[in-house]
Every structure is written in C-alpha cells, then in structure tokens.
Amino acid sequence: MAYLVTGGTGFIGSYIVRQLIQQGERVIVFDLSPASQSLEQLLTPTEMAKVRIIQGDILDFPHLIRTVQEFEVDRIIHMATLMMQASAANPSLAVKVNCEGTNNLFEVARILRLKKIVWASSAAVFGGRRKHPEEYLPNDAPHYPANVYSACKSFNENMAEYYFAAYGLDSNAPRFGHVYGLGQRGGLSASWNEELVIKPALGRPGRVPLGDSVLNWLYVEDAARVTVMASKVTKPNVRAFNVGGDLCSLRDAAGYVRELLPDANITLEPGSAWAASNLDTKLTEGEIGFKPQWSIKEGLREAVNAVRKLYKLPPIS
C-alpha cells in the first residue's frame, strides 16, 4: 500500500514513517517545511532512501490531489497541525490550517475514494477535569474545548462524523494526551520534555512549568503504533477514540528521572495544566486492538537514552 503522511517529518509523524517503512509500505511525506534530519535520526540510510518527501501545504488543495494521484496513494495519515500555543497566537491561521486543512484531506479522500484517512485529534477536546464527573472519561464524553486548538480538533471530529454519514468516508482519529520522546518541537509538551528529559539527560538543570499537573503519558512509539494500527482497521464503530498510557503526575515523573539520573537537578514550578487526562480506553482496545507497550518508566529511560545517544553520551542502564 502507499501512504501519504502529512507532517511526516514532525515529531509523531517521523515515528509513523519509520513504522510504515519497516512494515514494507510505500511512504510519501507531505510537509510544508520538510526537516529531513528528524527522519535521518530514526531511519537507516537504506530506509531513508525509500521515503519520498514532497514539499507542500495542506491548504493547497490542487497540489494535494495531484500528489495523491501521482503516487497512487491508498491511505492518508494526517499529522500536520498548528499546535496549541501557535494556535492561540494566531487564531485565524489555526482555523485555516487545523480546520480547512484537515477538511481538504477529507475531500481528497472522498473524491479519490481512498481506503482510509487517519488524523490526530486531542484529549484537549474534553476541556478541564472539572467539567466531567466521571472517574474515567468515556469515549463519547461531551466536548468542552477551552482554546482555539481544542475547538479546531472538536470541529474536525464533527466533520469526520459528517463525512462518514454523508459519504461513507472511513476515517479515524486517535485522541492523544501527553505524547513524549525525542523530537518534540513547540508547545507545552515540548517544554515539559525539554526540562524533564533533555536537560537532565545532558547534565543540565531543568525547571518544569506547571509542575503539579497530572498527565496521561504516551510514549511516542506507542502513539505512532496506534496510528498505524488505526489505518488498517476497516470502518470501526467510532470516528475518534481515546488513547492513553500511564496516568502520572509530573512530580512522580521527575522522581523516575532522578532514579535514572541520581544527580539530576529538576525544579518543579507550581501550577497545574487544565486538561482532563484520565481517559477510558476500553473502546480503543476493542475497536483497534491497541494497548500501550511502553510504561512511563520504560519510556522515560528510552527517551533519556535517545537524547544521550544523539549527543554521543553513554547510555544509562
């Protein structure tokens, strides 16, 4: 099969590309500002040679259509997005990229009758924890988006439902919580990764913002794996599904990093993120067959060692 991966040189997108290549799929990366070094860090030269990278804007509908036709694409994995802080800084651009851009991909898939489109939603669609009385948020919990980014993702979920009802378009969207690992760029999650993982791994002091937060931690390998799995499931009963890993506070996560790096100098600033993080994922297990393979302790160890390898430092055991 041939996959078009938008944002395929980004954080999660790069891991998705690697998994697809290792499964023997043809991969065409479609990216506004391709950064091949993120792929080169993950792929061997032989694997890298199998990836075709196309510079393109998801707002350029004709270019999308031409690319999908030229490379005989069967399935789309859509990861290109304007993240939360960038969306807040430029709401009109966020609506264009995150809503119009995603809808362009739906239209391409509809017109060309592609087998599947998978795109990234977010647990942020649910809003703050105080909005929900349940201990674990069910997959169909109501949406209370509290910012531009989450409002766009909520809109996209509604459009995916419309395209399925009106045209039978087979789409799925994993709702991610806090995805972590080597390669994050921009946003609060990237700040957490920088201060909690990267700096301590390099022997530098870290200062973690909103240190009282409790997050749903999903290692990037698992985020990529569930996305690829979803691309191969035919018309499950839901368009979007909760994806989660370990529920853990930043304070406990800092403790795990100190176990790995006893000399780590980590300061946690007061304050807490607003997003709900305790997600019910039973439906995801039933529909997609996904369970996380990485515990937070294993994921943090892998992330620390990935940073140290990049900087040519010895791994920790």
Task: Tell me what you see in this structure.
The termini are far apart. The mean pLDDT is 94. By secondary structure, the protein is α/β, with parallel strands linked by helices. Strand 1, helix 1 and strand 2 form a beta-alpha-beta unit. It is built from 12 helices and 13 strands. Strands 1, 2, 3, 4, 5, 6, 7 and 11 form an 8-stranded parallel beta sheet that branches. It has a 3-stranded mixed beta sheet with strand order 8-10-12. Strands 9-13 form a two-stranded parallel ribbon.
Keyword list:
317 residues; alpha/beta; 8-stranded parallel beta sheet; 3-stranded mixed beta sheet; 12 helices; 13 strands; 44% helix; globular
Beta-strand segment tally:
13
Shape: globular
* Content-based structural category: alpha/beta
**Helix count, per DSSP?**
12
Low-confidence stretches: none
Strand residue percentage: 15-25%
- Report helical residue fraction: 40-55%
Draw up the topology in text:
Elements: E1 2-6, H1 11-22, E2 26-31, H2 36-40, H3 45-48, E3 51-55, H4 61-70, E4 75-78, H5 84-89, H6 91-111, E5 116-119, E6 121-122, H7 148-167, E7 171-176, E8 178-180, H8 187-201, E9 206-208, E10 214-219, H9 220-231, E11 240-242, E12 246-249, H10 250-260, E13 266-268, H11 282-288, H12 296-310
Parallel strand pairs: 1-2, 1-4, 2-3, 4-5, 5-7, 6-7, 7-11, 8-10, 9-13
Antiparallel strand pairs: 10-12
Helix pairs in contact: 1-9, 6-7, 8-12, 10-12
